[in-house]
Amino acid sequence: MNKPGPLTPEEFKVIKTHATLGYVLIKDIPNINENVMLGVLQHHERMDGSGYPHGIKSKDINMVASIVAVADVYCAMTADRVYKPAFHPFEVASYILEKCYHSLNFSIAKTFLTNIAPFFIGHRVKLTNDLCGEIVMTYKDDPARPLVRVDETYYDLRKHLEIEILQMFDYD
Questions:
Q1: Is residue 4 part of a domain?
Q2: Does the predicted model carry a pTM greater than 0.70?
Q3: Nearest to residue 170, comparing CAs of 128, 119, 130?
Q4: Cβ-based neighbours of 18, under 8 Å, separated by 6 or more
């Protein structure tokens, strides 16, 4: 995780063993819920079969694993890494809703994002039109595009598709 560059194919193979190793570590713990064990094992499986460790698809992926998968992608993308700075939460929300439609459980992703977006109400942002404002409302139908107030003007980013949030100043 702290390597300052891309992983080699061999290093990526080693990284991909963490789901199976985690499962092996917890599977014999008395009274551990099977859904939790499958969440650990399958959290990198993807709806389209492109994940690991087993490449299983949609209906075969445990629901807890699907929830953990969305949270894992969100956390990975909103965290600073040695090799890349963190993306702001609305950028990640847009990415998840647009790019992960076939790989993550869309219903779970939308529910997660809809419920996390309101936590950013009141946070200051810089928009791609060079204006700075404050998030004043988020929307269940599009949690990636909030309502932003700049002085006395309101920008509903669901309607102003040409405007994006460029930067958030106080979300960490």
A1: no
A2: yes
A3: 119
A4: none
* Residues spanned by the domain of 154: 119-168
Nearest CA among 140, 39, 40, 59 for reference residue 105: 59
Q: What's the number of CA atoms in the CB half-sphere (13 Å) around residue 95? A: 14
Confidence band for 171, pLDDT divided at 50, 70 and 90: low
In a domain, 2, yes or no: no
pLDDT digits (tens, 9 = 90+) for 40-63: 999 999 999 999 999 999 999 999
Structure tokens at 140: 């269940």
Query: CA dist 1 to 9, 20, 79, 85, Å?
Result: 15, 18, 11, 13
**Domain tally, the chain:** 2
Cα 43 to chain center, whole Å?
A: 13
